[in-house]
Amino acid sequence: MNDHLISLQKKQHRSDIRLIIVLMIFLAIVSVIGLSVGEIQLWPSQWNSESAQLFVWQIRFPRTLSVIVIGAALAVTGAIMQALFENPLAEPGLLGVSNGAGVAVVLTVLLSSGVTHYWLLSVSAIIGALLFTSILLYFARRKNLNNSSLLLVGVALGVISGACMTWMVYMSSNLDLRQLLYWDDGEF
């Protein structure tokens, strides 16, 4: 019986490794296509040309690399949340952390009066997410909440911060802030 279980685990492990290899190959193919296709198409055979230096290596490659890294970070964050809450549906958006980041970005745009650097938006989003995570941790420790209650507090914080963010955007006359409405909806 025990040997059968070990055999099944080894088989599952081999299957998982094959799946990871297939996904990595797929990621490499999609990355090459992403680096090649755009307003100007530059296929891998052309990547050593002078025009490719700008388009592929200075514009497309950093963007592609950042998308891969951020996607991996989001996947790890989601997996950590799911393991922590023992809930396969748990994710940062469910706990209000994403909305906390959004509120910080909206406040940054409001307070900066139109002179906003992209790095400042990123830093403010990180600070907002950390602040909301700290609030959740405060409730978890001080109020001795179980996982279900903490999820409900996170959902409540997310709804409140989402409402505040939407109110600030709609009541503002700042054009940059109205553009953030598209950012919040996931548009580029």
How would you characterize this protein structure?
There is one protein chain. With 188 residues, the chain is mainly alpha-helical. The chain folds into two domains: 87 residues; 97 residues, no CATH class. The chain is flat, with a radius of gyration of 22 Å. The mean pLDDT is 82.
Using the CA coordinates, give the radius of gyration: 22 Å
Name the structural class.
Answer: mainly alpha
Low-confidence stretches: none
Strand content: under 5%
Individual helix count: 6
How many domains? 2
Produce the secondary structure layout.
Layout: H1 2-36, H2 50-85, H3 97-112, H4 118-142, H5 147-171, H6 175-184
Helix pairs in contact: 1-2, 3-4, 3-5, 3-6, 4-5
Offer a quick outline of the entry.
This protein is mainly α and 188 residues long. Helix content is 78%, strand content 0%.
Q: Keywords, please?
A:
mainly alpha; 2 domains; 6 helices; flat
